[in-house]
Amino acid sequence: MINSPVPAYVFGPFRLLPLERVLFEGDRALRLGSRAMDLLLALLERAGDIVDKHELVTIVWPHAVVDDATLRVHLAALRKALGDGRDGQRYITTIPGRGYGFLAPLAHTGRPAPGMAGVEPRHNLPVMLTRMLGRAEVLQTMANQLLQLRLLCIAGPGGIGKTTLAVVLATRVLRRYADGVCFVDLAPLDVGGLVPLALATALGVAVPAGDAMPVLLAYLRPRHMLIVLDNCEHVIGAAATLADALLKGAPLLHVLATSREPLRITSEQLLRLPALELPPADAVPDAAAARHFAAVQLFCERCAAVDEAFVLADADVPVVVDICRRLDGIPLALELAAGRIGHFGLHELRRQLDDRFRLLTRGARNMPLRHQTLRATLDWSYGLLDAQERQVLQALSVFKSRFRLASAGAVAGCDVFDTLADLAAKSLVSIEFCRQHVYYRLLDTTRAYASAQLSASGGAGAVLLRHARHCLGLAGRIAADWESMAPAHWSARYGRHVDDLRAAIDWAFGEDGDVALGVALTLAAQTLFYQLSLMDEYRVRVERALACMDRHALEDPDSEMQLHASLAHLLLHTQGVTGTMLRSFQRGYVLAMRTDDASRRAEAICGMWVCSLKMADFQGADNYVEQLALLCAARDDTAMRLVLARMRSAGAYLRGRYAQSAALARMVLAHPEGAGQLGFNNALLADHQVCLRGTLARSLWMQGRPDDALALAREAVTVGFEHNGVTLCVALAINAIPVALWCGQRGLAHAWTCLLCEHAARYGLLYWSAWGAAYQRLLDAGEALTQFPWPSVRSWPIQIDLMATLHDAAADSHALRRARTGQAPWSAPEVLRRDAHHRWRALAPGDAAGLEAVRAQLEEALLLARGQQAPGWELRCATSLAAVLQAQGHGAAAHALLAPVHAGYAQGHDTTDVMAAAALLAQLA
For a tag site, which of 85, 199, 672, 703 has the least CB within 10 Å? Predict the structure, then answer.
């Protein structure tokens, strides 16, 4: 078993498999309670250390208040299982006043032991590729402090190892937080206003671009989580404001910050991270002794990684100690120096360092000494580069995220194959391997330093222009690949580029930018922003592009048309049906109709069709369908024809032609090209595959197939998760939740409503949040709801039509008027039925004339349902009418009416409607 690949802890006669949570004594599995197992794993994870009893309680009982006696009971059970103390063997040691420790000899077999078993809390912590040295004591201190304090700030100069310590600390305490750890890198941000957006992006929560905090606090308030704010110094005010708001508004949150200076807010516990330990100045140890000092150990390990022949000899110790001392024991400086060991050797390396430090020892008096020291280190490293390397490093500083070799060449404006390799060898560029690709990135401090050099060189304008043009081409490739790549793969590959596109757009619309290029970038970035569900941010960027076009009198009707089309959709989903939304749709349509470009005309027509549907103007929607049909007749475009079929399917449903709607939906779904991201999908925002599944699900329910409808609704929700935020909202609000309620699945409808509310809030989709709120009111109030509170009758007609089929209170005068005037054909039978029910309940006892009027309206509703060939509505109308006939003493007529309708159902026998009909038939028998 010693050579087994399965990770295991081995001590005495025992072997613990942490993944399986099984303890063996020899070959015999021991019975160990879950709490005792958690305690043993926690102690083994920290073998050799004394673990504070409070920390043990937090790890093993994260959501409970547990006293010392409970801890002692479970430790006693663990000791008994291990035979602790038998034959003089001790495994668990108690240190009074401090805690407990596993101090017996321990070995690991197989792969490295994974830590405590079970489901690990969620986190997005970076993977540390090298080990942290010299920080064990401070790490333990901060881990203990986090048990009592809610805000810790690690402060120190750049390159001192703040991020490394924060990541290792967060990994150490991860299991204390039920909702995990969220790591937020603030380094890419240029302005403090983006700090809340960076947190929202890391959490996966969409927020309004103008005021993110209310949404963030609402999301975080119930969560027990550690937020790590890394690299705060350049946005210190905004980071401090965010941390303060989080601590005050989310009582279960802890915050860990790294910065070159304190946040300076109340409740902050500051740790100034010292340099790595150096040998005493008055003593020169031998090589073995020198390696016990963390600065020397780090430098030697990095040298050996660069030059495998490197070995620290006693004679070289004074040189190495001098280098480490001159670099102040700062890890980044030590790594930069070690990166040149293969070229210079130790002695020349020290001479080069001496020259640079003499040159740069007199920094500005108002700058911290630690900043001067890091500047000296970077100046020295920069001074070792030739002109080509300097030029390339400066150009690379404009990248906000990692980049490929081709991207580096495009922005630098030259062949960078050899230069990039040299910069990586000198530790100025980091190399990352991801699947089959190689990526490069600059460390944050290196990027800032190189950016300053670029500005001083006078060549920033040309580099930023090349970067913006490169981003324009990249955005085009991103959009093209969306047509063919799986959504998850696409997001993983391209999602990181959003920071570069943001920077390029901001530069283009800046003082020295290029407005036309900024407009082109904004349009090209549409797919990325849409599919990352950054709807509200993109809305702000589109509005800025239009404003800049107007301010600079830029005449570009095609771009203006596309921007208005995007803005209209974005306004719809982020703000709802408004006059501004309608004007944007109309402006884009007018501009498109002036062109001969069929694709542009088709996109504008689709936009007006969507607008008409949201306003429940079905006649207007039909007119736009016919306009698209004329375009399709004039050109052979499969994608356009499939979109037309999708529109006709939706239109047929809304007109009450369910068989036709279902046939069209099946045709598109079965088409060989129907599985891809078809053209106009971006303009429509919601994925057409999901929309078609939803339309078909509702049609199937209308056709008397509730089981098939519910199964397809579930499928639409599942597929919706693979696409942008709007797609899932459409799948839930328009399709899945109504089908669930029609089938009587209130529990499922409630779960889907919660999902809708959470998803709409996460992505800042206020229109869909209103739908979620309406469903929530309907479900929570039940039959007690007597009046439905519409946000705005003018703005929500399609919601009125749908909600009126779900609750009698929603079938009010607005809904009835739309049903009577033919504005809502699909819902008319059910609206009339519910209104009749409401009138029946309001009748005075013995009001025969009133009951006869109710019967007449139900007969009208039943006639409409039969005319639509909609067994779903027909069964409901027949059941209600049969109940009225029964009340009038016409039991036989009631049975004769209802029995054949009920018999027509071959499925759905456990749905509410079918069971209600069966129960009534049993009474009438």
Answer: 672
Nearest residue to 81 via CA among 96, 66, 91, 93 = 91
Inter-CA distances, 461 with 235, 390, 466, 470, 509, Å: 24, 17, 9, 14, 13
* CA-closest candidate to residue 439, choices 524, 382, 496, 503: 496
C-alpha dist (Å) from residue 46 to 49, 333, 430: 6, 31, 32
How many other CB atoms are there within 10 angstroms of residue 428's CB atom? 25
Tokens of 608: 């007006």
- How far apart, in whole angstroms, are the C-alpha atoms of residue 358 and residue 456? 22
What is the full DSSP assignment across 336-380? HHHTTHHHHHHHHHHHHHHHHHHHTS---TTS-HHHHHHHHHHHH
- Are 380 and 328 in contact by the 8 Å Cβ rule? The answer is no
Can you tell me the distance from the alpha carbon of 249 to that of 245, in angstroms, rounded to the nearest whole number?
A: 6
Q: What sign does the CA torsion over 169, 175, 176, 182 have?
A: positive
Q: What is the largest CA-CA distance in the chain?
A: 114
Give the span between the Cα atoms of 163 and 710, in whole angstroms: 49
> What values do phi and psi take at 135, rounded to 5?
-125, 15
Q: What are phi and psi of 920, to 5 degrees?
A: -65, -40
User: Rounded to whole angstroms, how far apart are CA atoms 574 and 584?
Assistant: 14
- 116 close to 18: Cβ distance less than 8 angstroms: yes
DSSP letters for 18-51: TTTTEEEETTEEEP--HHHHHHHHHHHHTTTSPE
Query: What's the pLDDT tens digit per position in 615-639?
Result: 888 888 999 999 999 998 888 888 8
* Of 567, 608, 498, 606, residue with least CA distance to 201: 498
Own/partner long-range contacts of 880-888 (Cβ < 8 Å, ≥24 apart): 880/833, 880/836, 880/837, 881/855, 882/920, 882/924, 883/920, 884/840, 884/851, 884/854, 884/855, 884/858, 885/855, 886/920, 886/923, 886/924, 887/851, 888/851, 888/852, 888/855
Give me the mean pLDDT over the 29-51 stretch. Answer: 83
Rounded CA separation 205/222 (Å) = 15
The pLDDT score that the predictor gives to residue 367 is: 33
Interacting residues of 813 by C-beta distance below 8 A, sequence separation 6+: none
Work out the percent of the chain whose per-residue pLDDT is above 90. 41
133 neighbors 294 (Cβ within 8 angstroms): yes
Give the closest residue to 74 by CA, choosing from 89, 97, 92, 49: 92
Host H or E run for residue 438: strand 437-441
Cβ density class 301-328: b for 16+ within 10 Å, e for less: bbbeebeeebebeeebbebbbebbebbb
Provide the whole-model pTM.
Answer: 0.65
User: Which regions of 192-327 does DSSP assign to beta strands (E)?
Assistant: 226-230, 254-259, 269-272
Residue-wise pLDDT tens digits, 696-736: 999 999 999 999 999 999 999 998 888 777 889 999 999 99
State the Cα–Cα distance between residues 569 and 581, nearest whole angstrom.
7
Nearest-Å Rg of the Cα atoms of the chain is 34
Rounded to 10 degrees, the C-alpha dihedral 174/180/184/185 comes to 40
Tens-place pLDDT, residues 461-495: 999 999 999 999 999 999 888 877 887 788 878 88
Cα–Cα distance between 208 and 534 in angstroms, integer?
A: 9
**Mean pLDDT in residue range 813-822:** 90
Query: pLDDT (tens digit, 9 = 90+) per residue, 190-201?
Result: 888 899 999 998
Cα 897 to chain centroid, rounded: 53
Residue with tokens 């943001």: 502
Could you give the dihedral angle defined by the CA atoms of residues 140, 145, 146 and 152, in that order, rounded to the nearest 10 degrees?
-100
- Contacts of 671-679 spanning 24+ positions with Cβ under 8 A: 671/642, 673/638, 673/639, 673/642, 674/642, 676/483, 676/484, 677/482, 677/483, 677/484, 678/639, 678/642, 678/643, 679/599, 679/637, 679/639, 679/640, 679/643
- Counting every residue written for the chain, the total comes to 925
- Sign for the CA dihedral angle at 822, 824, 829, 835 comes to negative
